[in-house]
């Protein structure tokens, strides 16, 4: 009986040896201190979607523009008009996402204007001018002269920005907003009521820190004679170093009220009377002149164009730019609004 089990025990020992030794033999060649390669860990960040604004079809709505120089009315398709506005209002070398944001504001403005039918002072048939009274607009022939040899590249870039946002507008509670914009902030945008007296919930002061770094228009200095200063403001400058006192500031850090020898003037009034670039100003007297320094360029309400470009340079999308400068808004198709308008004709 013992002899019968001996071969079986031997076989069991051999099998156990093989089971134990084979993994060791397989691992042994790779157990040295140096390795030819390792399993590394490098988690890839998801690619940020740049075109967050989807274009949508829109009815073929014509826009009639009163041309200030020729005194004629030029009629063209809405999207072609938007191209002419973006080209006239924003530098073509700005980032594409900033140009898209400008396209959204331009389209929103003209849709609002078409719906409101607010055309006082315009000749019959015109809905807008080509000036800052509404939006600056340039046609292709004018842009060819402005852009010169860069026309093809620049108009291609602007056309892409408009095409990528086709039919889209900025809304608040489902209605097109007053999509105001300006060149350069003083570091903040302004509440609409500080400029126009009437509040709009989406036009509130927000920070715009990019302007100071990238806009050559951030600071400006002008010199005006004391006599001219007194005449334009209707004040008398007393002898001494002090010329008035700022008694209040707006939410956007601009001058609210200045008291000059008992006469109180708003920052807006002073800006307009003296032709200043901004209502954020300071001044000092030097002999028979007054040196005025301003920060920012424009009225300050809505989207800062240089701020928009700053956001785009940091990777911001057109939608992010728009929703930063206009609070609580949405981006939606203008199709239904325009379709309703054309159906009534």
UniProtKB/TrEMBL annotation:
Domain of life the protein comes from: Bacteria
Membrane-spanning parts: 9-30
Entry keyword set: Membrane, Transmembrane, Transmembrane helix
Gene Ontology biological process terms in this record: sporulation resulting in formation of a cellular spore
GO cellular component: outer membrane-bounded periplasmic space
A Pfam match: SpoIID
Domain Sporulation stage II protein D amidase enhancer LytB N-terminal: 69-172
Xref: InterPro entries: Bact_Sporulation_Assoc, SpoIID/LytB, SpoIID/LytB_N, Spore_II_D_firmicutes
NCBIfam families registered for this protein in UniProt: SpoIID_LytB (TIGR02669), spore_II_D (TIGR02870)
Name of this protein: Stage II sporulation protein D
Organism, scientific name: Peribacillus glennii
Encoding gene, per UniProt annotation: spoIID
């Amino acid at each position: 009986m013992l002899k019968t089990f001996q071969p079986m025990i031997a076989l069991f020992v051999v099998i156990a040896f093989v089971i134990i030794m084979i993994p060791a033999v397989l691992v042994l060649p790779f157990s040295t201190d140096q390795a030819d390669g390792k399993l590394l860990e490098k988690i890839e960040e998801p690619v940020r979607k740049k075109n967050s604004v989807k274009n949508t079809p829109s009815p073929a709505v014509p826009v009639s523009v009163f041309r200030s120089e020729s005194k004629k009315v030029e009629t063209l398709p809405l999207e072609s008009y938007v191209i002419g506005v973006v080209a006239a209002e924003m530098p073509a070398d700005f980032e594409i996402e900033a140009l898209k944001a400008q396209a959204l504001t331009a389209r929103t403005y003209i849709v609002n204007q078409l719906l409101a039918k607010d055309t006082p002072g315009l000749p019959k048939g015109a809905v807008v001018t080509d000036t800052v009274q509404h939006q600056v607009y340039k046609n292709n022939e004018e842009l060819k002269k402005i852009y010169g040899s860069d026309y093809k590249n620049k108009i291609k870039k602007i056309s892409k920005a408009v095409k990528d946002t086709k039919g889209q507008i900025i809304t608040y509670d489902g209605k097109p907003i007053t999509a105001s914009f300006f060149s350069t902030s003083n570091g903040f945008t302004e509440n609409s009521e500080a400029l126009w007296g009437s509040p709009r919930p989406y036009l509130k002061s927000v920070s715009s820190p990019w302007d100071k770094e990238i806009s050559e228009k951030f600071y400006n200095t002008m010199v005006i004679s004391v006599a001219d200063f007194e005449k334009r403001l209707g004040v008398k400058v007393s002898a001494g170093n002090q010329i008035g006192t700022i008694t209040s500031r707006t939410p956007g850090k601009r001058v609210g009220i200045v008291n000059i020898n008992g006469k109180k003037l708003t920052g807006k009034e002073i800006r307009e009377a003296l032709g200043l670039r901004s209502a954020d100003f300071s001044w000092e007297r030097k002999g028979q002149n007054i040196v005025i320094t301003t920060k920012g360029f424009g009225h300050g309400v809505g989207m800062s164009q240089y701020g928009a470009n700053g956001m785009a340079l940091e990777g911001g999308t057109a939608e992010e730019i728009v929703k930063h400068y206009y609070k609580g808004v949405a981006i939606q198709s203008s199709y239904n609004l325009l379709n309703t308008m054309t159906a009534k004709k």
